[in-house]
Amino acid sequence: RNFVTPVKISPGTTDPFNEELRRLLDVPFEEKEITCHFDYEKPPWMDGGFGQKEKAEEVKREVRSAAARRRGETLPSPMDVTPPMEVVVSIAAETDKHASEPIPDPSPGWISTYTRPTIEPMSVNDHPGFWNGLDELSTSRSLDGTPGNPELDRRFMMFYLDHFFPFLFPFYKPPLLEGGRTWILELVVGNQAMWHTTLCLSTYFVSVALDGTISGHIVCKTLAWEKLLHQMGVTFMMLHQNLQEIVSSNTQDLVVKTSRIMGSIIQLQRFEISVGNFENCQKHLGAAIELFKQIFKAVQNVTDGGELPTFLDVLSHMGRPLWVIKSQPSRAWSSDQAAFRFYAALLVIDDIIASTCMEEPPKLLEYHRRLLTNGGSPDERLLNLEDFIGCENWVMLQIGEIAALEAWKKSTRKAAGLI
Description:
The chain is an all-alpha fold. It has 2 domains: 16-69; 74-418, no CATH class. Helices cover 58% and strands 1% of the residues. It is built from 15 helices and 2 strands. A two-stranded antiparallel ribbon has the order 1-2. A hairpin with a 6-residue loop joins strand 1 (323-324) and strand 2 (331-332). It is globular, with a radius of gyration of 25 Å. Residues 1-10, 74-133 and 139-146 have low confidence and may be disordered. Pfam families: Fungal_trans_2.
């Protein structure tokens, strides 16, 4: 039997929900994308009182959400998707306090005299209560106080690591001597915002897989989508909290924390790309670019340099590699270094592609030569995009320059027309 919550449709009213419900009645059940309560026993919420009223409101929200998804509209987020930019901008002001601190000059290579940041990546061996820590991440409560399911969260996380990440980035196969992809697990476990953004991606792909393989009343395919909406709400809360925390950090901790927030936002932006929500995608991209620039500015203030620091200088402020093999150019990056290299590559690529769509120069154009070329120095470490997306650096450089040239021509023609 299908226990359907009775919802009254008032004739002659202009209630948007009533109108949507009338249209929904003509849609086949498998296309309605709402939860099917199918069982042989009466559910506990069907009590004829408060519980049933709450379920009726939940069905209303689900109907609106499903209708919006079918029409391709933007789903409202529980919070503003763009992090508070006043906190982002305040990073630069905070780093000025530490610009006068005596810091040794960065030496070539990786024998660095910088002290390690106090933030350390979480390690299973260092923390016997590893699974307890995962439970704390998983049971973060939603806005309505509903606890999460730790076992289900861990399963979704392993789906992401085993299946979805290799599917999204098939060319990213870092060598064993560089640490492989272990940084993903370390970063996800050590950062709540990254944990929840990763769960967002994983639950979305699970919902897509269920939608393509399972039909009927027994399995409700909206379970993964409901979990996704929950994870989105928690993600925005975590990002907002992390942005507030970085203002009180010292310089080296600031670089590491900001890079982690940047990675979480890029992860969230990748989710928006997956679901086709390009409006929020642009907001996330702008916030991530702003954080990326502030990281370079923070290192520039510390080194007292007149120009932007190199990519190697920024990496050196995130700690030392786990090991260095002098006979080979490869080195085992720390989890924060590997994560920053990965998300910086994605950010540069997304910025270039977005510039071609928006008909404007890439916002990170001035960083391209520092990130994607060696500047004539064979010792300078390159950010090789081919290792991340399978596309060589010179191709993306040319696309970025073409986009900048086209934007310049457009602005010149517009200025000439105003004269």
